[in-house]
Design a protein that fits this description.
The chain is α+β, with helices and mostly antiparallel strands. It contains six helices and five strands, in the order βββββαααααα. It has a five-stranded mixed β-barrel with strand order 1-2-3-5-4. Helix 1 runs antiparallel to helix 2, helix 1 runs parallel beside helix 3 and helix 3 packs across helix 6. It is globular. The termini are far apart.
């Protein structure tokens, strides 16, 4: 019996290691947060292991079986963990990932949320030490808004969330000027989510 192969881009958020296989939480563009398993990925000659490292962005192929998704292909695009050597940038990406895992319920298509997270990770990775914090809080408040934990009725939330700035300098200036309001919205969102 042949299975349908699903192909999508995704970010490996968390790894659960077993004997020679591993389980993964992968945040995908088309399916949301999925749990998948890969057989033999921990063997030294595995072709999948480079695309299935933590915080790697890859093009994944899955089949849906009785026990859930199985990874059949992983072509690496980039890896946020290896592309930055700064501890605080890695911690910021890990913090956003942890909130994402705690708040997303089930598999659901949310390309806007995926693009927000991917863009935020790229901004953090390419940032300087001085402006990394602003990119982290801006990504976090956008994530909370897109998941419904920050409401439209909050003052200036539309400007903060939906601001489509053209370059990193504009984003940095915007986030600096609204940082206290952004932190307030993050606290409201986290309180609403009961984290």
């Amino acid at each position: 019996m042949s299975h349908k192969i699903y192909t999508t881009e995704g970010i490996v958020i968390k790894i659960f290691r077993y004997d020679t296989s591993a389980g993964y939480l992968i945040f995908t563009r088309e399916f949301g947060l999925i749990r998948a398993k890969a057989q033999g990925v921990r063997k030294y000659n595995s072709k999948l292991k480079f695309g299935l490292q933590e915080f790697s962005v890859s093009k994944f192929s899955f089949v849906l079986g009785k026990s859930g998704f199985r990874v059949t292909g992983a072509i690496p695009i980039s890896n946020f963990y290896f592309e930055t050597s700064d501890f605080f940038k890695k911690k910021a990406i890990a913090n956003i990932s942890a909130v994402l895992v705690r708040l997303i319920q089930g598999e659901e298509d949310n390309t806007l949320l995926y693009d927000c997270v991917l863009n935020g990770f790229n901004l953090i990775k390419d940032s300087t030490k001085e402006n990394m914090f602003y990119y982290e809080i801006l990504t976090m408040v956008r994530l909370l808004y897109l998941l419904g934990y920050v409401s439209d009725s909050d003052l200036n939330v539309k400007n903060i969330i939906e601001n489509t700035l053209e370059n990193n300098k504009e984003i940095e200036v915007f986030a600096k000027s609204y940082s206290s309001k952004i932190l307030e919205l993050i606290n409201i969102g986290l309180k609403e989510s009961q984290l």
